[in-house]
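Structure (tokenized):
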């Protein structure tokens, strides 16, 4: 029987980051298992925003570590990880959002995250297509940007493998082996594997996997989506990511065009038990409501983006994220099961928080003290829940619906 100190289940960006950070911190043996291919679910469908500052201060240090780690990864791999450090413009057009922006900026400054306050002339140069007539206040974070989530996942995995981690795809984990209330291994479709710790990084299936040790993980799969606008001279070239909380939207450059994300007022949730094991042939779109969402947002968006009236939309990308009722991630040990850790419920910030999540879980698995305050991320903070029930899923949908109406990180 194969034996490893640490087994990570799930080959998305979280699992790959955890494998890398475990090896970086001196773990002796690490195995990453994925039943499909690496980055084949949510990690390949994300918009790829990397935004450090947040109105949820608990997440900010995790996001900051991701920026620092991207630079180290490039040095370690001697190749680009595809990070576009274009900065982000956080735009407030109301008093409420201006107050949130001030609080976010204060927190960012306290953590030595660079932040600037551009004037209207600066904003015109940064984002020529943006209508600035309704803007009350704008902050610019120059080290923010966007990245190809698939490429980043593969970069974490390659760096982990180079340090000695073992990665096996097309391997399904059927169960968790326990001795009393302690993890002693996993059972796969290729046989049992002995280990001392098991890390649940299963993305939208994380609650299903946690059920294998009898724990109800408080998260639900929620639909996320964005549109791609065809290239046009007005928005060509690189420019900052724009965050528009007053209209629950964001944009980023996309090969001469734009990615446009618009928040649903009522986010669609899914029962994880009804999801297929491979999302490659699955669409979270129900009918054609997504075009209605875009059409209904036109008037609000045109306040900031007048050219949307003539924009041509070439693609619609729809995927799943995992949300919790309070919009905080799930990170740490589950109670009553020694050696079982969870890295899940990323609340649409998995790309942004990937290095922080990997670093924190690696410390816990190695019985070291994480550098972050882990209290907001406790998997047991809601008490007993039914993660598949309608009421709980409605709470997660509400957390998703409120997200883009705040100036927070978005993957």
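Design, position by position:
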């Amino acid at each position: 029987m194969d034996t490893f100190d640490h087994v990570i289940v799930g080959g998305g960006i979280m699992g790959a980051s955890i494998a890398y950070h475990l090896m970086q911190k001196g773990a002796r043996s690490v195995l990453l298992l994925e039943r499909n291919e690496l980055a084949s679910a949510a990690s390949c469908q994300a918009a790829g925003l990397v935004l450090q500052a947040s109105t949820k201060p608990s997440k900010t240090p995790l996001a900051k570590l991701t920026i620092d780690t991207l630079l180290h990864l490039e040095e370690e791999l001697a190749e680009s990880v595809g990070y576009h450090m274009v900065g982000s413009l956080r735009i407030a057009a109301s008093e409420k959002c201006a107050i949130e922006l001030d609080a976010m900026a204060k927190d960012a400054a306290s953590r030595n995250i660079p932040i600037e306050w551009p004037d209207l002339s600066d904003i015109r140069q940064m984002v020529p297509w943006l209508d600035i007539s309704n803007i009350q206040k704008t902050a610019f974070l120059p080290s923010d940007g966007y990245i190809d989530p698939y490429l980043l996942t593969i970069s974490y995995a390659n760096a982990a493998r180079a340090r000695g981690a073992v990665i096996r795809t097309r391997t399904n984990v059927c169960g968790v082996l326990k001795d009393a209330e302690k993890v002693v291994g996993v059972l796969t479709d290729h046989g049992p594997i002995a280990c001392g710790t098991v890390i649940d990084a299963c993305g939208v299936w994380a609650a299903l996997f946690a059920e294998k040790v009898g724990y109800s993980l408080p998260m639900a799969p929620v639909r996320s989506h964005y549109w791609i606008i065809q290239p046009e001279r007005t928005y060509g070239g690189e420019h900052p990511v724009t965050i528009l909380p007053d209209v629950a939207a964001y944009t980023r450059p996309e090969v001469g065009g734009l990615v446009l994300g618009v928040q649903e007022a009522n986010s669609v949730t899914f029962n994880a038990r009804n999801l297929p094991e491979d999302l490659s042939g699955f669409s979270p779109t129900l009918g054609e409501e997504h075009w209605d969402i875009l059409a209904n947002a036109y008037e609000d968006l045109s306040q900031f983006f007048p050219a949307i009236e003539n924009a041509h939309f070439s693609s619609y990308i729809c995927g799943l994220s995992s949300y919790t009722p309070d919009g905080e991630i799930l990170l740490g040990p589950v109670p009553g099961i020694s050696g079982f850790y969870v890295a899940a419920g990323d609340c649409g910030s998995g790309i942004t928080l990937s290095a922080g999540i990997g670093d924190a879980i690696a410390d816990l698995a190695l019985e070291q003290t994480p550098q972050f305050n882990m209290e907001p991320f406790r998997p047991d903070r809601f008490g007993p829940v039914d993660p598949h029930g309608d009421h709980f899923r409605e709470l997660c949908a509400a957390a998703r619906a409120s997200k883009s109406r705040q100036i927070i990180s978005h993957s």
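Reviewer-requested clarification: The longest helix spans residues 60-77. The domain at 2-79+149-218+325-389 is CATH 3.50.50.60 (FAD/NAD(P)-binding domain).
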